[in-house]
Amino acid sequence: MHELSITQSIVDAVTDHADGARVIGIRLTVGRLSGVVPDAMRFCFELITEGTPLQGARLDIDEPDGRAHCASCGDDFTVPDFILLCPCGSADVRLLAGRELTITSLEVA
Ligand SMILES: [Zn+2]
């Protein structure tokens, strides 16, 4: 379960950044094509933060769809899953978004 190591990295980054302040909320952007399962992340977050200053912090996760641009027809289209094909049938596409995995905001007390 790679969510555990990813969540650990996020918790480490947040702890560093907060520099001793009490963190009450964290917002993440986890693209649908990132390969990370948000529910697993929430579960890991509770495990990892237990007994730390981050315990009880709210974890909000935005899950934007993937977006891609087709070089054949010129359209931008949504990529809801891992199948990177334009509706026109072309595979000559470039992924624009969907693999993000970032901390977008922190709320400290
Ligand atoms: Zn196309």
From TrEMBL:
Any one GO BP annotation for this protein: protein maturation
Coiled-coil intervals, chain numbering: none
Binding locations of Ni(2+): H2
Q: Which GO terms describe its molecular function?
A: nickel cation binding; zinc ion binding
**Residues that bind Zn(2+):** C70, C73, C86, C88
Organism's domain of life?
Bacteria
- Keyword line: Metal-binding, Nickel, Zinc
Q: Which PROSITE patterns match?
A: HYPA
User: What InterPro entries does the entry give?
Assistant: Hydgase_Ni_incorp_HypA/HybF_CS, HypA/HybF
Which family is this sequence assigned to? Belongs to the HypA/HybF family.
- Function summary: Involved in the maturation of [NiFe] hydrogenases. Required for nickel insertion into the metal center of the hydrogenase.
HAMAP family linked to this entry: HypA_HybF
Q: What is this protein called?
A: Hydrogenase maturation factor HypA
Query: From what organism does this protein derive?
Result: Virgisporangium aurantiacum
Give the organism's phylogenetic lineage: Bacteria, Bacillati, Actinomycetota, Actinomycetes, Micromonosporales
| Gene transcribed to yield this protein | hypA
